[in-house]
Amino acid sequence: MNNVRKYTDNELLERVFNLPSFRGLPEDYWILGVQSEEDKFNTFDDKFYLFKGGDFVLATTGTTNAGKTAMMGYEKYNKKGVAVIKTNEWYPNLWRNGLHKGRMDALRQVNPIKHYRDNNKNTLIEEAGKVYDSIIYCNFHTNSYSLTTKLIRSLIGGWSACCQVCNNPTDYKTIIKLTKNQQYVSYCLIKEF
């Protein structure tokens, strides 16, 4: 299901350090998303890595893209198109602990994120056109509202319209627990390399 190749901690950190938007690692926990090169439609095929400063903590699966529901019916969310988060960017202090849709503990977007609007309703997520930089409720959450599930899904469906969604509820609970006392959680999104 997940096709992102394996990386060493140093490979990931070196890639992050070389981004033009990188300004330094936070001392606390932060999340790195790696978008699959294959980028299979409506599939959880990406990875997330939790770091504390420069130290690796855990890796898990998820999606950095919208699912079929939002891609094919983006008008429900925004008439300009489905949000496509700009990759190879560092987003300091992007999230703060809160609730997603009032129903699950999550990391809620509190600072702007760069994104495109894809409105051609094909099966490809495309970084093309105007770059927007705003709050679009791009939260970090998991794939179920159940607090006890261990469900790993294969299809994204309606679980993401732009949110970064962890596909492993057990790993997700660990991430939320570890970041609970931070004022902000920073995010970096890169393409597989």
Describe this structure in a few short sentences:
This protein has 193 residues and is mainly β. It has helices at residues 9-17, 68-72, 169-179; strands at 29-35, 46-52, 55-63, 82-85, 89-100, 104-109, 113-118, 132-134, 140-142, 164-166, 185-191.
Question: Could you explain the architecture of this structure?
Answer:
The protein has 193 residues and is mainly beta. It is 13% helix and 35% strand. The strands form two sheets. Strands 6-5-11-1-2-3-10-9 form an eight-stranded mixed β-sheet. Strands 4-7-8 form a three-stranded antiparallel β-sheet. The radius of gyration is 15 Å and the shape is globular. It starts with 8 loop residues before the first helix and ends with a strand. The mean pLDDT is 95.
Question: Which helices and strands appear, and what pairs or packs with what?
Answer:
Layout: H1 9-17, E1 29-35, E2 46-52, E3 55-63, H2 68-72, E4 82-85, E5 89-100, E6 104-109, E7 113-118, E8 132-134, E9 140-142, E10 164-166, H3 169-179, E11 185-191
Parallel strand pairs: 1-11, 9-10
Antiparallel strand pairs: 1-2, 2-3, 3-10, 4-7, 5-6, 5-11, 7-8
- The helix/strand class is mainly beta
Spans with pLDDT under 50 lasting ≥5 residues? Answer: none
Largest beta-sheet details? 8 strands, mixed
Order of helices and strands: HEEEHEEEEEEEHE
Broad shape: globular
Q: Helix share of residues?
A: 10-25%
CA gyration radius, whole angstroms: 15 Å
- What is the residue-mean pLDDT, rounded to a whole number? 95
Report the end-to-end length measured between terminal Cα atoms.
18 Å
**Continuous helix count:** 3
Strand proportion, as a percent range, falls in 25-35%
Tally of DSSP β-strands: 11
Q: Major sheet: order of its strands?
A: 6-5-11-1-2-3-10-9
